Amino acid sequence: MAMNVGSGGGESDVMVEINTTPLIDVMLVLLIMFIITIPIQTHAVKLNMPIGTPPPSTREPVIVRIDVDFDGQIGWNGEIVPDRATLEAKLAQVAAEPDQPEVHLRPNKLVEYKTVAMIMASAQRLGVTKIGLVGNEQFMN
User: Fold this and answer.
1) What's CA 3's distance to the chain center, in Å?
2) What angle do CA 84, 89, 59 make, to 5 degrees?
3) How far apart are CA 88 and CA 74, in angstroms?
């Protein structure tokens, strides 16, 4: 028993056409899903922003200088700090103030990194929020 699949006559042409209707249907369904979900994904946060410009600061910021010499000796506004406990006590006083002064850490380029890291870690642990490294021409040369 034989089965004839093509049009008779023994032609063995390969069918090269593809039915694209199901592909177009899937594409349209995905496009509709995308259009429906876009309004859900775009949401705004309402903020009450102040109107106008803020008044200029009437007071100069207070600056605390911490100098670190090449041998690890620490200075607080020009006076030598004898040990780490004294430094941490001074940092705790700065952190306790309601309007904290800016702490400018000025290390010498030859000082060991662990000394600078110790000062920054102590300041962070004690709650000093305004601290930064400042280049110092006197120490950088």
Assistant:
1) 71
2) 125
3) 12
Distance CA 134, CA 123 (A): 15
Instruction: Give yes or no for residue 39 having a pLDDT over 60.
Output: yes
Pull the structure tokens for residue 59: 């007071």
> What is the helix (H) or strand (E) element at residue 45, kind and residue range?
none
Indicate the DSSP class of residue 71. Answer: T
Which two structure tokens, joined as six digits, stand for 107? 């290390």
Do residues 68 and 103 touch, judged by C-beta distance below 8 A? no
What pLDDT sits at residue 58?
78
- DSSP string for 73-139: -EEETTEEE-SHHHHHHHHHHHHHSSSPPEEEEEE-TTS-HHHHHHHHHHHHHHT--SEEE---HHH
pLDDT band at residue 71 under the 50/70/90 scheme? confident
| 103 touches 123 (CB < 8 A) | yes
pLDDT beyond 90 at 28: yes
**pLDDT at residue 40 tops 70:** no
